[in-house]
Design a protein that fits this description.
This protein is of the alpha/beta class. The protein is built from eight helices and seven strands; from the N terminus they run H-H-H-E-H-E-H-E-E-H-E-H-H-E-E. It has a seven-stranded mixed sheet with strand order 3-2-1-4-5-7-6, with helices on both faces. Helix 3 (40-50) runs parallel beside helix 4. The longest helix has 19 residues, at 164-182. GO terms for molecular function: methyltransferase activity. Residues 60-149 form the Methyltransferase domain.
Length: 236
């Protein structure tokens, strides 16, 4: 699937029928060859938006996966950079790709840090958390940051209802709901559970001051609005 180096259809099915942690352990060796890996265009646009706000001290990639976020943390941060994830397999790949970074295995809903970082980023991870789990995630990131620290992540605008992507993503979420209703352990991955207004409310409740900037390099929708925004949540 996806490319000759990517996972087979059978491997993807086995992953989808596993828990989130086990699924990513299985997918880790081929994850870089799937569309699930954050595209470099998104990473570069995020770096361009953050660069004027830096330089930063220590950096943290929340739900780091195989370490793609190090592409931007390394040049933006003058101090130690750290990745945290709960998948052993993903962290093993990240360590091989970025041996100079620090890697921590932990459930990000209970981050083991306090006042340690100046910048935290996250890419493509919010869909793995149910809405009721976001407050604990954001509270943990808040604790992990130093005063005036920044939590940044891109969030994509939903496609219009007339778009084929709208119905494809809705269909995916419905399939996942049925899968999780009839199969255990659950595999939490949804595309429609983290709209910007809900994420902003949860960040504000955690204590952040929230702004957004458009990532115009990633294009605009038909109505002229940006396809993607960078959420900037600052610990004040």
């Amino acid at each position: 699937m996806f490319s000759p180096q990517g996972p087979s259809l059978r491997e993807l099915v086995v992953q989808a029928l596993s828990s989130v942690e086990r699924g990513y352990d299985l997918l880790a060796p081929k994850f870089e060859h799937t569309p699930f890996r954050t595209p470099d265009s998104v990473l570069d646009a995020t770096a361009d938006a953050l660069r004027p706000l830096g330089p930063f001290g220590k950096g943290l990639d929340v739900c780091c996966g195989t370490g793609a976020g190090m592409r931007i943390l390394n040049p933006l941060c003058q101090g130690r950079i750290t990745g945290v994830d709960f998948s052993t397999g993903m962290l093993a790949q990240a360590r091989r790709a970025h041996p100079d970074a620090e890697w921590v295995q932990a459930d990000v809903r209970a981050l083991p840090f306090a006042g340690a970082f100046d910048l935290a980023v996250s890419f493509g991870a919010l869909g793995h958390f149910l809405p009721a789990e976001r407050p604990s995630l954001f509270a943990g990131v808040y604790r992990a940051l130093r005063p005036d620290g920044l939590f940044a992540f891109p969030i994509v605008a939903p496609p219009p209802i007339t778009s084929g992507w709208y119905w494809a993503l809705l269909g995916f979420d419905l399939v996942m709901q049925v899968r999780n209703a009839v199969w255990r352990p659950p595999f939490v991955m949804y595309y429609g559970t983290c709209p910007l207004h809900a994420v902003r409310n949860d960040l504000t409740a955690a204590g952040f001051t929230v702004t957004t900037v458009p990532l115009t390099a990633l294009g605009r929708r038909e109505d002229g609005s940006p396809r993607c925004r960078l959420v900037l949540a600052r610990r004040t």
